[in-house]
């Protein structure tokens, strides 16, 4: 299996109509190590996106790559909560609201 074909929906700009492309990704000539390098590059981009969305970029992290078609649960650190809510007090208040719901 050196090729994978996927339908990819792409917009040139946010307000444009998406164009669906039948994209064939050809892995011919790549070693398993090469394919792992490509996969790690994709995982890095996903991790960076998650870090930006969580509004915290840690000095050290581990990203558990989810199985294709699934989502990884986001794990919030205390620092991430403070960054997301703006202060320790606001983070604690948000957690207290969540606790009251459960």
Shape by Cα distribution? elongated
The residue fraction in helices comes out at 40-55%
> Strand portion, in percent?
15-25%
Sequence stretches where pLDDT stays below 50 over 5 or more residues: none
Distance between the termini: 48 Å
Using only C-alpha atoms, the radius of gyration works out to 19 Å
Protein structure class? alpha+beta
Q: Would you count the extended β strands for me? A: 2
- Return the average pLDDT rounded to an integer: 87
Summed up, the helix count is 3
Strand order of the largest sheet: 1-2
Sheet with the most strands? 2 strands, antiparallel
- How do the helices and strands follow one another from N- to C-terminus? EEHHH
Characteristics:
single chain, 102 residues, 2 strands
Structure explained in plain terms:
- It is elongated and about 55 Å long.
- The protein has a domain at 31-101.
- The longest helix is centred in the middle third of the chain and has 23 residues, at 32-54.
- The protein has a two-stranded antiparallel ribbon with strand order 1-2.
- The chain has 102 residues and is α+β, with helices and mostly antiparallel strands.
- It is built from 3 helices and 2 strands; from the N terminus they run E-E-H-H-H.
- 44% of the residues lie in helices and 16% in strands.
- It has helices at residues 32-54, 78-85, 88-101, and strands at 3-10, 19-26.
């Amino acid at each position: 299996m050196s090729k994978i074909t996927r339908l990819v929906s792409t917009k040139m700009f946010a307000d444009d109509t998406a164009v669906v492309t039948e994209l064939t990704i050809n892995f011919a000539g790549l070693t398993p190590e090469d394919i792992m390098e490509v996969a790690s590059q994709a995982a890095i981009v996903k991790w960076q996106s998650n870090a930006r969305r969580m509004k915290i970029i840690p000095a050290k992290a581990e990203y558990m790559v989810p199985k294709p078609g699934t989502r990884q649960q986001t794990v919030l650190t205390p620092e991430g909560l403070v960054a997301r809510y703006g202060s320790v007090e606001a983070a604690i208040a948000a957690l207290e609201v969540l606790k009251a719901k459960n």
